[in-house]
Amino acid sequence: MADNLHKAIRSMSLDDDDPITLPDEPQFRVFDANATSILGRLLNPDAQNMARMIEFMPTAWRLYNRVRGIALSRDRFQFIFEREEDMLTVLKDRPWSYNHWTMVIERWVPAPPRDFLTSFEVWIRIRHIPLNHFTTDTMYLCAKKIGRVIEFAYDPKVSHTTDYVRAKVAFTADSPAFEAKNLNLPSGDVVVIEYEYEKIHKRCFGCFRLTHEKSSCPYSKKKNLRLVSKDAAPITKDPVTSLIEGRLEGPPGFPLLFPELPPEERRMAIQYVSHANETERKARILWVQQAIEVDKDNPPASLKKFSHELNKE
């Protein structure tokens, strides 16, 4: 009997099964309800229990009976608000965290773009900008290293009483949240620029990403796999590894990838697009190219939006 059942299952095909056709009628749509809702993503679902998060967040927002949550998957969720003003308040106070790990939330849209819930806006604090280079252009250059610059909270006409300047950037959720970067000065000196991320509590102390603990860091594990004995045979590097480690010329006969990027950014971009699946690889290359075009349209610091409200948001 088991053999007959197995043969019957193998003989089945999708063509034999009648598909489910969803009628284009109002009772099968929730567009009106979704209009006052947000969609979200847990960046570290291993440390963020979905059910507990849905129960907790209305309390954190002080909305109690005016919002309800829906678990869509292990890391995706939706909150539907009774009042639009409540939803706008929640969106204004982003980023939000649960169990000390960051969540990405956006207002619902009927057709989400490809990069939906992959980045979020965050205020950063930049420290140790050199006195002789304390200009808006230097601020922009330092902030741009973290993400696309949206706004500065800085007024050059008033006293500056803090040891940092604030900038709002669009931060890619899967990127490292660096604590510091070296700034090479024209004099040849090097200054360490430090970054602090407002409302972000936890991150991996190995790779600085917001998606896992250090104990489960996949990037640290990859590094450990490379540790071999001195007597071990030399490892032949594939073209992708060679590109990542600094030889950025690419295979003979192929066009140079992302030549407009600085070496370090180009190395990171090539590492990002290196994927075994050809379709995914082409999609990632397209995303990087689109990001480069957007960055080209990004105006210089002198044309950036500056707010004189130093403690904005």
TrEMBL record:
Matches recorded under PANTHER family: DUF4283 DOMAIN-CONTAINING PROTEIN (PTHR31286:SF178), GLYCINE-RICH CELL WALL STRUCTURAL PROTEIN 1.8-LIKE (PTHR31286)
Boundaries of every DUF4283 domain copy: 36-110
Organism, as annotated: Brassica cretica (Mustard)
Protein name as annotated: DUF4283 domain-containing protein
Pfam families for this protein: DUF4283, zf-CCHC_4
Zinc knuckle CX2CX4HX4C domain location: 181-219
Record InterPro entries: At4g02000-like (IPR040256), DUF4283 (IPR025558), Zn_knuckle_CX2CX4HX4C (IPR025836)
